[in-house]
Amino acid sequence: MPSAERPTTIAELRASGWRSRTVKDELRANLMARKRKGGPLFPGVVGFDRTVIPAVENAILARHDFILLGLRGQAKSRLLRSLSTLLDPWVPAVRGCEIRDDPLRPSCKRCRRLAAEKGDALEIDWLSPADRYREKLATPDVTVADLVGDVDPIKAATQRLTYADEEAITYGIVPRSNRGIFAVNELPDLPARIQVAFLDILEERDLQIRGFPVRLPLDLLVVFSANPEDYTNRGSIITPLKDRIDSQVLTHYPRDVKDSLAITRQEAWSRRDGPVRVGLPEILETAVEEAVFEARRSEFVDPASGVSQRAAISAIECVVSNAERRGLATGEAEVEARVADLFAAVPALVGKMELVYEGEQQGTEAVARRVLGATVRRAFEARFPPVHGKRPGPKGRRRVEEPAPAEEDGAYRAVMRWFAAGNVVDVDDGSTAAAHRASLEKVDGLLDLVRAHGAPKDAGEETLLMELALEGLHQCSAIARDDLDGRVTFKDMLKEMLAGMEGND
């Protein structure tokens, strides 16, 4: 209701017909109403429709406190924060109350005293869903006083109260979240002695502060998030607390590239204001998502730690930034991202991959480049003929897969002969779109290859596919590639190998 129509005293509240209900009953009723209307329950949460969200719905319908368990970057915090959308638009609370007491059922000593003194004139405030969601990141320095509260000697002295008086207490974040949702992120990081403070909160719904007999019933939905314990190794959830958390919901990464791409498009800052407008081909968007999937499968990356979905978001932003930087340097108002821009995503990937021993020997940057290279090869092989074919084995044996020179395939013959003649092509990060296209067109047969097999939609996609063909041939070990100071040079593989041997000699 509009603010002008909302009651301001308890008498007006009673006259309005408003009725109290618990937070869990409120969430349950609003969930049922929204399910009947249809539409998404948690806007912005992608890929969980048939897995995670049904389990969360069941927990809410059962009035359960629950925990989301999953690797980093699996939208646990986003999902927890989305729970506030199921709260009522406004609920009343006693004005000035630290724990937002229900005016019709006050529980703290101060509110009971005010209700007795003021009667029907007791003033009330109204709380929005944003006011009723509180979140705490579990860190080793969290204390019981932070969560529950403590006796405040200054308050006791100024108000002339004994330390045993309930009004001498300064409440922590949990009681201040009363009549709302309280979330704890990364629960295993909370020391075991602090986790004990949640036992009575979850089971008895009351507080214990410094041993004083404070009986304060709390109206809360308590939710948690955590990484698997075998990954964090920083702590664990104590068994009594596990027993009191009613439901455990397992999250996961997007199951396919389509969902992953939808998340990145939703979250990444790729459409920007400024003098340069960047075009981002879908081929490159998909390649970034494939790179994250490739990293999760990589033998060099620790599968127990996972690779966050934030890796794809940060990577695509780096790709756009590299193209934007090029446009600023060349003075172009519109630029298209290139295949070479994919490798500008290396800084976004290196900080989001935990490597196993073998990966550490390779180096994080080398692993990131390997992942991106594998993605480029997959995109190339999806659009162009195989670079390596099958050769017959020795007489009397079955045919076996063996590398065959790329020039044996008619599709690549002209391109490979051009490189074999000693020609090279430079893809300069600072070149204009026209200069970039001209450098690629120098390669004999490259444009014909793209038009015959790549099915380009326009001239811009032709240019992108020509560069993809060269990168793909390199990833298939058909041509050599040097990358130095923003300039990528493609050349003949055999000559590069011979030059390296001469240098060693």
Strand order of the largest sheet: 4-7-8-1-9
Looking at CATH, the homologous superfamily of the largest domain is P-loop containing nucleotide triphosphate hydrolases
Ranges with pLDDT <50 over ≥5 residues? Answer: 390-408
CATH top level assignment of the largest domain: Alpha Beta
The residue-averaged pLDDT reads 87
Supply Rg.
Answer: 31 Å
Task: Return the CATH topology of the largest domain.
Answer: Rossmann fold
Measured as a percent range, the helix fraction is 40-55%
CATH architectural label of the largest domain: 3-Layer(aba) Sandwich
What is the domain total for the residues?
3
Basic shape: elongated
Structural class: alpha/beta
Largest sheet: 5 strands, parallel
Percentage of β-strand residues: 5-15%
User: Strand tally, please?
Assistant: 16
Task: Characterize the structure shown.
With 505 residues, this protein is α/β, with parallel strands linked by helices. It folds into three domains: 3-250, Rossmann fold (3-Layer(aba) Sandwich); 257-381, Helicase, Ruva Protein, domain 3; 408-504, Arc Repressor Mutant, subunit A, CATH 1.10.10. It has 23 helices and 16 strands. It has helices at 10-16, 23-37, 52-61, 76-82, 109-118, 144-147, 153-158, 173-176, 192-195, 197-203, 229-232, 239-244, 257-267, 282-297, 310-330, 346-350, 357-362, 364-381, 413-420, 433-441, 446-453, 459-475, 493-504, and strands spanning 66-69, 91-94, 124-127, 133-137, 149-151, 169-171, 180-185, 220-226, 247-250, 277-279, 334-336, 390-391, 400-401, 425-428, 479-484, 487-492. The protein has a five-stranded parallel β-sheet, with helices on one face. A three-stranded antiparallel β-sheet has the order 14-16-15. A two-stranded antiparallel sheet has the order 2-3. β12 and β13 (400-401) form a beta hairpin. α14 crosses α18. The chain is elongated. Mean pLDDT is 87; it is low at 390-408.
